[in-house]
Amino acid sequence: MTFYKPFKQVVFVSLAFLFLGCEDKSYFTQTYDEKLLKQKTTCLQLKLTPYSSEVYNGVKDLYPFNQNCKRILEIRYKTKIACNSPYNENKSFNSFIELNLLDQDKLIYTVYKDLKNNDDIIKEIEKGYDFLWKQTNH
Taking the complete model, does pTM exceed 0.90, yes or no? Predict the structure, then answer.
C-alpha cells in the first residue's frame, strides 16, 4: 500500500498539469469591479466600435441584445494594424479584439486578444464572447 499513495499523487499532479495546460492562455483578462461582476447579467446592450454592418450581422445573435439595458457589451476590434516601431518584437500580430463588460459607463471586466491578419474577426469575437461568458459565470 505504500506504493499506492505516491502513485496517486503523481497521477493527480499529472492530470492537473494536463487540464491547466489545455486552458486557453491567449486571452488577457482584467477585472475592474468584482462586486458588479458577481451580479447576474439579465439584460445586455451591444456597442460595436468601429461599427460595421458585416461584423454586427455576424455577432448580433450572440445574445438577445436590447438597447435599453444598462449593462453593455462593448466590442472593440481593429484589423490590419501597421506598427513599424523598433520596439515591436512580435510583428506577426496585426489585429485585436477587445470585449468590455460595462454597467452603464463603469467598466467591469475586459477580455483582450491579439490576432493575426488571417484570423476571422467574427469567429474570434464569438470565441471571445464565449470565453467572457464562461469567465464571468453567467
Answer: no
Burial label for 41, CB within 10 Å (0-12, 13-18, 19+), is middle
In the block, residue with C-alpha cell 464562461: 134
- pLDDT for res 78: 80
Res 108: pLDDT = 95
Residue-wise pLDDT for 21-61, tens only, equals 334 458 899 999 999 999 888 999 999 998 889 999 999 99
Query: DSSP letters along 19-54, please?
Result: HHHTS--S-EEEES-HHHHHSPP---EEEEES--HH
Among 63, 44, 28, 49, residue whose Cα is nearest residue 102 = 44
Q: What is the strand order of the sheet 28-31 is part of? A: 28-31, 106-115, 95-103, 71-78, 45-49
* Sign, Cα dihedral of 33, 75, 117, 22: positive
Domain coordinates in residue numbering, the chain: 24-135
Q: In 3D, which of 67, 62, 61 has the Cα closest to residue 44?
A: 67
